[in-house]
């Protein structure tokens, strides 16, 4: 008489959870300071990008935040000025000011001339 033995296998590991974006991070929908438009910030590879949002369709439009890389307490990259038919691209920084406010700054000529806005989270 033979006894069949079955080797006990350890349980399969649980799948890794999906990455979670912190609620206080910049990913999401933002209203510009003067309520001139909305920008959707989302991951683009290892960086962040931001797109103007079409008010009628809600779809992403032109890329306005370009390859924002994590840097210290914020992000650094480039910003496109689309106001008044402009198309200038400038150095830019993003910095969270609480969960629902984000300071967006653009600088020209190596930081000689800078301007910025505080955007408010929509969602």
Q: Could you please describe the fold and organization of this structure?
A:
The chain has an eight-stranded antiparallel barrel. It has strands at residues 28-31, 38-44, 47-53, 60-71, 74-80, 89-96, 101-108, 113-121. β4 and β5 (74-80) form a beta hairpin. The termini are far apart. Helices cover 0% and strands 50% of the residues. The protein is mostly beta strands. The protein has a single domain (28-121), classed as Lipocalin (Beta Barrel). The protein contains no helices and eight strands. The model is unreliable at 1-22 (pLDDT under 50). This is DUF2147 domain-containing protein. InterPro entries: DUF2147. It comes from Rhodoplanes elegans.
Q: What is the terminal-to-terminal distance? A: 69 Å
How many structural domains does the protein architecture include? 1
Tell me which CATH architecture applies here.
Beta Barrel
User: What's the CATH topology label?
Assistant: Lipocalin
CATH class: Mainly Beta
Largest sheet, in brief, is: 8 strands, antiparallel, barrel
Structural class: mainly beta
Keywords:
mainly beta; Lipocalin; 8-stranded antiparallel barrel
Question: How would you summarize the topology of this molecule?
Answer:
Layout: E1 28-31, E2 38-44, E3 47-53, E4 60-71, E5 74-80, E6 89-96, E7 101-108, E8 113-121
Antiparallel strand pairs: 1-2, 1-8, 2-3, 3-4, 4-5, 5-6, 6-7, 7-8
Pfam family, one: DUF2147
Protein name: DUF2147 domain-containing protein
InterPro entries: DUF2147
Explain briefly what this protein structure is:
This protein has strands at residues 28-31, 38-44, 47-53, 60-71, 74-80, 89-96, 101-108, 113-121. The chain has 123 residues and is mostly beta strands. It has an eight-stranded antiparallel β-barrel.
